[in-house]
Amino acid sequence: MLAISELYSNNGYALASVIPNLQTDEQNKTVQVTLSISEGDKYKVAGSRYRQYQDPGQGHPERDTVDEGETFDSSKLKRSYERINNLDTSSRSKWCRSRS
Predict the structure, then answer these.
(1) Average pLDDT over the chain, rounded to an integer
(2) Alpha-carbon distance values, 1 to 22, 59, 79 (Å)
């Protein structure tokens, strides 16, 4: 179910949910699995901000952030977050979400 949620989240459906429904057959010792998928709305990136707290000379991570206007892709967002956090430890970083 996590893989299905990630597939949707990587394609713009930031709030997609996958809900399993299990029906057991005790006599045959089987389980029927039905997945209910709710895509929700498709999202685009409104913007991202990066704030650097020490030593601004430790790289230029803005090139690794997601681009405004592109379809939301959780895998790109995770990768950007990883790249920023992998900078030299003297350069502490934080991601900020803005609701403006």
Answers:
(1) 78
(2) 13, 37, 21
Q: In this structure, what token pair is assigned to residue 40?
A: 């929700």
74-98 average pLDDT score: 65
Q: How far apart are CA 4 and CA 23, in angstroms?
A: 20
For the full predicted model, state whether its pTM sits above 0.90.
Answer: no
Instruction: Report the C-alpha gap between 11 and 28 in whole angstroms.
Output: 39
Burial of 61 (0-12, 13-18, 19+ CB in 10 A): middle
Which parts of 1-100 fold into alpha helices (H)?
A: 2-9, 74-85
**What is the rounded distance in angstroms from the CA atom of residue 89 to the CA atom of residue 29?**
54
